[in-house]
């Protein structure tokens, strides 16, 4: 509306009349939005009428803050295969925890919902976790050789060295006769492993000069918390509002810390590759490490891999390559500490293979059947990534006849799947025999590394690291739980404990 039109209306109606007209337009707009909201909600309810749910508030949904996992267990027990859940307002999803449902969704190529995964973009950009379509396929194909067994074999020694540094530190602390919070120690150890294996880092991550790495680990902890919280807060969906909030400012501060770390790693390796001798040595390798693949692709064809793409893949793998493994290992240690009979049986198996020595090799990793069973059972109880989501690109009909239209969000709850009593009798009981060599189960009943084409690219790397860390730790320590500090599980992008994981360490003679 132009100035002269506004002036004319003012002359005709007067100031008070103009205010009435504006108020009327505002009221009509508000009623229109309310009608749209109501009609959309009715459509959503109709789509979801086949899927059971607990009562939901029209604005606040039916999720209780930081009780996602406890609610999931209740829903899994009450509704055998699936249920609908509401975050806030008109923002529902269908949560599935049935293996046939899982197999169907993971076999499709539905994208990750931008309205939740998009909150990761300022942090990790568009790397393998967030890419879709042709570009995702190109990057996955480019990076897959970094996880060939020829590459993974020599990593076992690097993993063992990193674990020994952590255990040496624990040996100094074990004499203090007080419980040790293990999560940050384990995170620094997995960070050192990924830095040395995938990023050709030569320094120390865990010792006295680890300030920058500790800052990065703390930043990742902050970022996973902020992303989870934002996804569940209606008023933080807008970037403008979120960026002005205290939570948004804290998120971006942590992003800067994370980016400074990854930029430093990229710059260091770039500088090394500018040395002609180092570059020739790398080019002669039969297979390349993760970062070298990216840097050589960038050097040889800058069009196919931009600076932004390079940084996104490094940010993604730096986060996923250490944080998920650290979560899994911390919970495995906790599970063994709370089940001493299984811990002792694992220790005896490891001793029979390694003796009193501490050298562990690639060939040893397949000689630990019972230890592997215990690791898998702990990953069942405590899946490092509790849930993922997909947005349906086409309608879907599930095996039991229920259906959903295009555009709906589906949440795949690995935590619910792993605690589903129809699949796992007495699911809260730690029972490694579930993973005995002759035990039968559905192909999609156990998914600690997801499944389908978009499964975790580093799953073999992670399993090797878990085996090495458990074996070497059990040779040196008895792990004892602290009954006064029972961990409180909380769902983030990675499974965490709200109050840490405290263990007592008893040095073995």
UniProtKB/TrEMBL annotation:
Keywords noted in UniProt: Heme, Iron, Membrane, Metal-binding, Monooxygenase, Oxidoreductase, Transmembrane, Transmembrane helix
InterPro entries noted in UniProt:
Cyt_P450 (IPR001128), Cyt_P450_CS (IPR017972), Cyt_P450_E_grp-I (IPR002401), Cyt_P450_sf (IPR036396), Cytochrome_P450_Monoox (IPR050196)
SUPFAM superfamilies reported for this sequence: Cytochrome P450 (SSF48264)
Which residue ranges does UniProt annotate as crossing the membrane?
A: 12-31
PROSITE patterns, alphabetized = CYTOCHROME_P450
Q: Which family does it belong to?
A: Belongs to the cytochrome P450 family.
The entry's protein name is: Cytochrome P450 4A2-like
**Annotated organism of origin:** Microtus ochrogaster
